[in-house]
């Protein structure tokens, strides 16, 4: 596989994608010429357009091995890179296990979206039994439990997510929300401060920290 030493070719592919909006063509061209490791390095050291192209690529076909480098892009100076990193992380998290387990996770998400919450909890629990290291399975169960107003169990699942994926800003936000509903104001403040370190440009988190800190 060819690995260009600069991001110039990646920039060409990215700008072509912006013009044509052909995701499949972009994915094919980039994956044929760049490894995941090279894309990660470009995400940290490339020009703005190269970083945008790199994080978009990792969102399309990156593995969980890129979790940390993509999470660091949440602190990028460029808002487009930050937005693409947010989307890329969710994509990476949802395909972090076997194809079978990834499909099962999608079914859990669908059940939640249809407000079939009890079934979602049951399906997520079955998935966790098969894949106890699959962080996003715990996160989806945490969401379902939160919708049941079972805040203690939801918080426990959020902590399980963070044990497996400390960059999971969704689980941090969920944990903070649970702590607020459980009357744990100081713990919630600490949790939102931790989330803000991951997403320092997130105005909503900044407002939570400001309000709780007063």
Write structural notes for this entry.
Helix content is 77%, strand content 0%. With 214 residues, the protein is mainly α.
Summarize the structure in short.
This protein is mostly helical. The protein has helices spanning 8-20, 23-33, 36-45, 48-61, 67-72, 79-94, 99-113, 117-130, 135-147, 151-164, 169-181, 185-198, 203-213.
Kindly list the characteristics that best describe this protein.
214 residues, globular, 0% strand, mainly alpha
Beta-strand segment tally: 0
* Helix-strand makeup class: mainly alpha
H-E string: HHHHHHHHHHHHH
| Coarse morphology | globular
Low-confidence blocks of residues = none
Q: In what range is the share of β-strand residues?
A: under 5%
Mean pLDDT over the full residue set: 95
Helix content: over 70%
Q: Give the termini separation.
A: 55 Å
Spatial extent as radius of gyration: 18 Å
Largest pleated sheet: none
Question: What is the count of DSSP helices, taking H or I runs of 4+ residues?
Answer: 13
Give me the secondary-structure topology:
Layout (H helix, E strand, L loop, with lengths): L7 H13 L2 H11 L2 H10 L2 H14 L5 H6 L6 H16 L4 H15 L3 H14 L4 H13 L3 H14 L4 H13 L3 H14 L4 H11 L1
């Amino acid at each position: 596989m060819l690995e260009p030493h600069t991001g110039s070719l990646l920039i060409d592919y990215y700008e072509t994608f912006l013009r044509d909006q052909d995701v499949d063509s972009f994915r094919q061209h980039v994956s044929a010429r760049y490894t995941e490791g090279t894309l990660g390095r470009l995400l940290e050291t490339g020009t703005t357009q190269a970083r945008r192209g790199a994080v978009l690529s990792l969102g399309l076909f990156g593995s969980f091995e890129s979790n940390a480098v993509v999470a660091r892009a949440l602190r990028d100076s460029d808002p487009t890179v930050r937005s693409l990193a947010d989307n890329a992380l969710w994509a990476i998290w949802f395909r972090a296990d076997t194809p079978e387990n990834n499909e099962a996770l999608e079914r859990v998400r669908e059940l939640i979206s249809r407000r079939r919450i009890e079934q979602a909890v049951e399906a997520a629990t079955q998935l966790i039994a098969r894949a106890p290291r699959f962080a996003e399975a715990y996160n989806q169960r945490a969401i379902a439990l939160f919708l049941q107003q079972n805040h203690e169990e939801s918080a426990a699942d959020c902590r399980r997510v963070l044990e497996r994926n400390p960059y999971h800003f969704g689980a941090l936000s969920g944990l903070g929300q649970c702590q607020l509903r459980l009357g744990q104001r100081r713990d919630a403040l600490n949790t939102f401060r931790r989330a803000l370190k991951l997403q320092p440009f997130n105005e909503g988190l900044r407002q939570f920290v400001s309000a709780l800190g007063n």
